[in-house]
Amino acid sequence: MGFKVAVVGATGNVGREMLDILAERTFPADEVVAIASRKSQGVEVTFGEKTLKVKALEHYDFSDVDICLMSAGSAVSKEWSPKIAAQGAVVIDNSSCWRYDADVPLIVPEVNADAVVGFRKRGIIANPNCSTAQLVVALKPLHDKAKIKRVVVSTYQSVSGAGKDAMDELFEQTKAVFTLGEIETKKFPKRIAFNLIPHIDVFMEDGYTKEEWKMVAETKKILDPKIKLTATCVRVPVFIGHSEAVNVEFEQPITVDEAHEILRKAPGCLVIDKHEPGGYITPYECAGEDATYISRVREDATVENGLTFWCVSDNLRKGAALNAVQIAECLINRKLISAKRKAA
Ligand SMILES: NC(=O)c1ccc[n+]([C@@H]2O[C@H](COP(=O)([O-])OP(=O)(O)OC[C@H]3O[C@@H](n4cnc5c(N)ncnc54)[C@H](OP(=O)(O)O)[C@@H]3O)[C@@H](O)[C@H]2O)c1
Question: 289-318: per-residue pLDDT in tens?
């Protein structure tokens, strides 16, 4: 008997991608249920060749669900994840609600898959922020080789990272620019079409934004608490794909050639780095892809043992849905869970 998987937030950007990825990877599920808010009850979503009718979260009985992939925001997760876990389903959550809880593992399978066993404490596993996920996939193999001291990262984050309404806002504003219509801002604090916004999530007391703080806290939890990191997170008018300019200072020497070789072999990484026009990856090209792409690796001669690189990934996939499905696969492959429903 296969697993029963619930996708909560199935009408959203991440939830729809989760359904696609479960189907693409022929995840060993006998049944997949799509769940969202009451307003979406009965709405149809695609799952491979099939169509699923969305069910309302508040009326759903999770007692025969094995795995719940949750992507409905922090408030929903705070209320529902413990209730769903109490019914015996393992919750893999995409919001930031549980990421910093010491009793909840924060997992990127290419980096810290062994920590997944910690799910037993609360029945919840957290998925990192989209910008952290791709960063740690690229940093991990380099850290193993030359030990990272400090990272300076600037992000160029697509609007899909802020949900489906944010994608609509970029689309509507772009249309309005060309038709001389009114530019409405609802989701973003300033116009995003043909613009950049150096502000994602709320401001903290020290002047950093919460998105920037998340990158620091999550890199420490997933990779190494000793790594020092500073981030500047910027929203850009791109629909899908987060990009990052990353500057790394290592304890030990590491050359560009060594970094290329290590990254080429590293799980989840793909190196495209030709020193010619177009010899690098842009967010447009990474949309719909699973890899974390690394380009423009070069020595940073302003520090001892420094490297700089460009890193791009599909934020809805590696940054969210794919990572969550990989965590679920990890639980199954390591035989940490078994299906509740047995064959008759
Ligand atoms: N987008 C990314 O790159 C990314 C990356 C990492 C993590 N995340 C996190 O993943 C979560 C979802 O993001 P998203 O981009 O998919 O957002 P989204 O496109 O706005 O979708 C939100 C989903 O949550 C559902 N939902 C909202 N309120 C609900 C409720 N009370 N009960 C049940 N379902 C409810 C919505 O259902 P209705 O359609 O019925 O309202 C919808 O399916 C967020 O926590 C986000 O921070 C996103």
Answer: 999 999 999 999 999 999 999 999 999 999
